[in-house]
Amino acid sequence: MSDTPSPTMNDLYTRLGAEMMPWGPPLPDGSVIEVAESFAGVDDNGQSIAAGGGFEAEYAAIRQRVGVLHLPQRAILQLTGADVKDYLHRLCTQEINKLEGGQTTRAFQLDEKGQIAADLVVHHGDESTWLEIDVFDLPWVSDLLEARLFAEDVTIEDWTAQRTVLWLLGPSAVRLLAAVAADDHEENVTRMGAAPGTHHVIDLPMNGGAVARCTAYRWDLGGVLGVRVAVPSEHALEAYGALLVKAGYEIGVEVDESFAQRRRDSMRGRPVGWSAFNTVRIEEGVPRYHIDFGRNSLPAEVPGDWGIDGAVSFTKGCYLGQEVVARMKSLGHPKKMLVGLKVTDRDPEAALELPGIAGAQVLEPGEKEKIIGGVTSSTASPLRGQAGIGMAVVRWGRHQPGTKVMVPSGGRLIEAEVVELGTLTS
């Protein structure tokens, strides 16, 4: 038996010339999650990768082809037992009791104050139910589930180490998964691609005759077609590599006419990192938990399908934090709201600046420049000619589309306008 350690995803990142960045604070065990910010287009020996790389190529892949994004920050809890549906139904904001086997939905897990303690993806199957969450919410959600478990027939297991989540993003996402799936599972891929809100078992052939039995589900990023694949972790590295190969991304090959023809004939996909993904995310107006809203947010403060409209049912019975949600809906409104921001400054140079970095103040125009909110995300939008866009939490009454605000950028204040989240590039 060889003493050589098995290669890891980070080893492949090194070969791909990935520029890494930490994701959040250290975990309770002291470890730090790292994500790829971008892929520089050179390998670990400084040699150019034939398919190239960098932000522009990754952004173009998501918009026009397909990008493969690794999500090491996702955690999975598996729940089994006869009472799982009713148990979860009484805890989270969504209609879990109505789910059939093979259905997937979003939900919030609230605390006693009605604040969002976790953003959940609930995968209900015939034999088990998965909760997909941010890894930093895993301790709190696990403790809550255990504390609320009495005589119910429910078993809770942490499956985070057993599954690795990959996200295929772009027009060719379904086609790419079909290309790597076993021949007798291509129909499953087709059904999955045509049915958002469902998840399907997809087998991926591995070397040596092994099979990686994966769970795949349609998960778009706003208007960008997306497929998430939960791969058994022992096969994650090989599956990731197989996806890149089928996408037409080659490493260590001679750049010649033969390569150019192969690349033209392929899906012309590539690995993508956080930087390109985040720009597309903001352009699509998709807020992210722990970035644009978080532990102190109320569901009513997050509008649209990625917030209260898509994650909260107003027809179900009691659940943890339900009183606050119902009272907010029937009697009033939140004190603040998540909105989109477009830079509208007439100065051509200012128009290309970001509407502040995360944490920057949003100010009311005028002599007093009263603070009315804070920026949560921002980017230069290729779809708007590199003009600045972003998201911000602002006071109620300043959240209406068309409201003019000022934000600090480049050492000065620039003008921006409040817009709905889904209209940041229109």
TrEMBL record:
Domain GCVT N-terminal: residue ranges: 54-303
Superkingdom of the source species: Bacteria
SUPFAM superfamilies: Aminomethyltransferase beta-barrel domain (SSF101790), Folate-binding domain (SSF103025)
Protein's UniProt name: Folate-binding protein YgfZ
Pfam families referenced in this protein's UniProt entry, alphabetically: GCV_T, GCV_T_C
Residues annotated as domain Aminomethyltransferase C-terminal: 336-420
InterPro entries: GcvT/YgfZ/DmdA (IPR028896), GcvT/YgfZ_C (IPR029043), GcvT_C (IPR013977), GCVT_N (IPR006222), TrmE/GcvT-like (IPR027266), YgfZ/GCV_T_CS (IPR017703)
Species assigned in the record: Algisphaera agarilytica
Keywords: Transit peptide
